[in-house]
Design a protein that fits this description.
The protein contains 11 helices and 7 strands. The protein has 298 residues and is an alpha/beta fold. Helix 2 (42-55) packs parallel to helix 3, helix 2 packs across helix 8 (167-176) and helix 5 (108-126) packs parallel to helix 6 (147-153).
Length: 298
């Protein structure tokens, strides 16, 4: 993944002078010890790096591993935790065995996060830690995110929200701490590539993971492979449509690679491979929910 070499400028350019970082360090110090739910994305990586800086071995990053975690994201998370120097544990997650999750209603994320926080609560006790924290920031509160309710139910600390961090503050802080992922593109679990109401299966997740991995290896940075059924959503036979989203600036590059991309899609079991001309946009998975009454939990 290509990352910009120049971090954002700020009137508080040092770790010692940044007010958000000072508040975060102080809060983490008060917490004493913490398990960080760590995916390898910029938000959770920033929390883990800050916690490790303040708490040392009393901060542990936990990554829940399941078929919905992209394989390249898992490998990147392991590498980044090693670079941070923090203790990092991979724990198998079982949400794929939960029918409430696999039926893929609009509350799917709630069931996924409930499993994550169930695991983290157990491991917090096993590892003799005081708190569980996630990487939620203030900008996350405005989207439809059922997982926020799961965090509230499990009494998980959203330390970035508590300290007033928005996404731009997270990226600036991550750059100040020397994290190479300070401007990493947003990511999401592979199940978010499957339309609501279409069953989540291991096979479909493997198709998506395989093709997204191929696209990243071709040098495309912000990628989503949206899985669409040709017929019945309950038909598990091969033959789905891959609708590929890339950043608008990468559309021409993707079109130039179309033959290679189609071949990769066929190898991954897709019958048709398409390119979404609107390009990647945040929240496109939720576009079908427009006009429905949604309760956003803050």
């Amino acid at each position: 993944m290509a990352l910009s070499p120049t971090p954002p400028q700020s009137e508080h350019p040092t770790v010692e002078n940044d007010p958000h970082l000072k508040r975060l360090f102080s809060l983490l110090s008060e917490m004493g010890s913490v398990l960080v739910c760590y995916s390898g994305g910029v938000d959770s990586a920033f929390v883990l790096a800050a916690a490790h800086r303040v708490l040392g071995p009393r901060a542990v990053g936990m990554t829940a591993v399941s078929p919905s975690l992209p394989s390249f994201e898992r490998d990147a998370a392991v590498d980044l935790a090693r670079r941070i120097g923090a203790r990092h544990e991979l724990v198998e997650s079982g949400e794929i065995e939960d029918a409430n999750y696999t039926k893929n209603d609009v509350d799917r994320c709630f069931h996924c996060k409930s499993e994550l926080y169930r695991l983290s609560a157990k491991k917090k006790v096993d590892w003799s830690l005081d708190w569980v924290a996630n990487g939620t920031n203030l900008d996350d509160l405005g989207d439809y995110r059922p997982g926020l309710e799961a965090a509230k139910n499990a009494e998980v600390r959203s330390v970035l929200v508590e300290c007033g961090f928005r996404k731009e503050d997270v990226r600036r802080g991550a750059a100040l701490l020397g994290l190479p992922v300070w401007n990493k593109p947003a990511s999401a679990c592979l199940s978010s590539r499957i339309p609501y109401g279409t069953e989540v299966t291991r096979e479909r997740l493997a198709q998506i993971d395989g093709l997204e991995g191929e696209l990243h290896r071709l040098g495309l940075e912000q990628v989503r492979v949206r899985w669409h059924a040709l017929g019945s959503t309950r038909d598990t036979a091969p033959g789905a449509i891959a609708r590929i989203e890339v950043e608008a600036r990468e559309l021409m590059r993707a079109f130039e690679l179309r033959d290679t991309i189609v071949e990769a899609g066929k190898r991954c079991g897709f019958r048709y491979v398409t390119l979404d001309l609107q390009g990647y946009r945040t929240g496109s998975h939720n576009e079908v929910l427009v006009g429905r009454s949604l309760r956003v939990v803050s």
